Amino acid sequence: MNNKEKILGFAEEYIRTKGYHGFSFRDLAMRTEIKSASVHYHFPTKEDLVVALIDTYSKRTSLFLESYNGETEADAVRHLAKIFDLSITEGGQMCLCGMLASEIDGLPEVLKPKLAAFMDLMIDWLQPHMANQQHSRAEAVVATLEGALILARAKGDPALVKRMANAFIDAANIST
Amino acid sequence: MNNKEKILGFAEEYIRTKGYHGFSFRDLAMRTEIKSASVHYHFPTKEDLVVALIDTYSKRTSLFLESYNGETEADAVRHLAKIFDLSITEGGQMCLCGMLASEIDGLPEVLKPKLAAFMDLMIDWLQPHMANQQHSRAEAVVATLEGALILARAKGDPALVKRMANAFIDAANIST
DNA sequence: GTCTTTCTACCTATCATATGATAGATAGTC
DNA sequence: GACTATCTATCATATGATAGGTAGAAAGAC
After folding, report:
1. Tens digit of pLDDT for each residue in A60-113?
2. What is the mean pLDDT of each run of 10 residues along chain B (176 residues)?
3. Does the beta carbon of A20 lie under 8 angstroms from any beta carbon of chain B?
């Protein structure tokens, strides 16, 4: 792994744990064991760096979603939930775009449409698999998973994410 | 409203839109039209300021929850959802503690137990009103609402939060 | 094959600005 | 006289970013 890839890896980790304003080029330089000017060589501005991160993150997510071969709504929910579950169980991290979306008013403008697109990526993938193909139902799953990461981190309870995915599936099968 | 209260108000707005690291004492000073040293007079450190914010925010939330006089699970969900709905429709803001929880790894240690307590405040209030008093079901509602704020901001769609509350209620009444 | 140029990925050094925080002075109130 | 809320002035450090230099690899010319 070359330094450019290392920078991307560390930057992703920083954003997903501390947010966009929670790290500096010098932090990245120290982790990568190069100088901060060399970080700027690979990514002239912080905005450039984060654009690159969101783009590869979105592509990775898209590829994973396309690898789906289940059948039921519950299968689809579990498939999407796996991304969030791994995020928290390995690394204790937020979703990159979920974190950035919460801080959205403090971000460079170019990032904003990319965050909206990422959310639509997940919702639009999920919708055809949902009961009655309800759009709001697909949104609800994504919202629940993004929120589950917040709760899991606040409470130091990584198992919460999987529990929320199951709670959603269960809620569809009990009638109150 | 005195300057101390103004500072608290502006700081809350900053955190709920840009995050803990998304504003400075000078930002607060400019908004309040005093000098940054005077902000430090009221709140010696940023940590002190945010402790005060979380405490009053938690108390406010607790008081609102206790004002509940509904009956059904759906009523309770709507009651809690009102907090989140107002947060996004007025001000376009995150939940203070939801925002901080996402950035938790970049925060002073003293804040962390307070964030966990805030989440439990909502979950523990909600649980007795839920079907079978299921704890995971109460967690799911809170997760959905916290996540709904993220989605609403990412997509610039404030109506999403109320839609998610209704989606949760509907999901309990249809059998797939 | 050797020489020269260009490119890549770093470096040192530096800048302007931002940031959290402190010391000490001052005017008005109790 | 003590207290409150502000001020001016200042600090050390952090931050994003730039200028200009260097060693080694790659590419092209002869």
Report:
1. 999 999 999 999 999 999 999 999 999 999 999 999 999 999 999 999 999 999
2. 94 98 97 96 96 97 96 95 97 97 97 98 96 93 98 98 92 63
3. yes
The minimal CB distance from A151 to the residues B131, B137, B146 is found for B146
CATH for A50-171?
1.10.357.10
Q: List the one residue out of A117, A123, A107, A92 whose CA is nearest residue B105.
A: A92
What pLDDT is stored for residue A176 in this prediction? Answer: 46
DSSP per-residue letters across A86-134: HHHHTTT---HHHHHHHTGGGS-TTHHHHHHHHHHHHHHHHGGGSGGG-
Q: Structure pTM?
A: 0.94
Q: Which CATH number fits domain B46-171: 1.10.357.10, 3.40.50.2000, 3.30.160.250, 1.10.8.1310?
A: 1.10.357.10
Q: Do A164 and B154 touch (CB under 8 A)?
A: no
Say whether residue B79 is in contact with chain A using an 8 A CB cutoff: no
Residues 122-151 (A) with a CB less than 8 A from some CB of B: 131, 134, 136-137, 139-140, 142-151
pLDDT given for residue B83 in this prediction: 97
Please, are residues B116 and A154 in contact by the beta-carbon 8 Å criterion? yes
Instruction: Give pLDDT, residue A85.
Output: 98
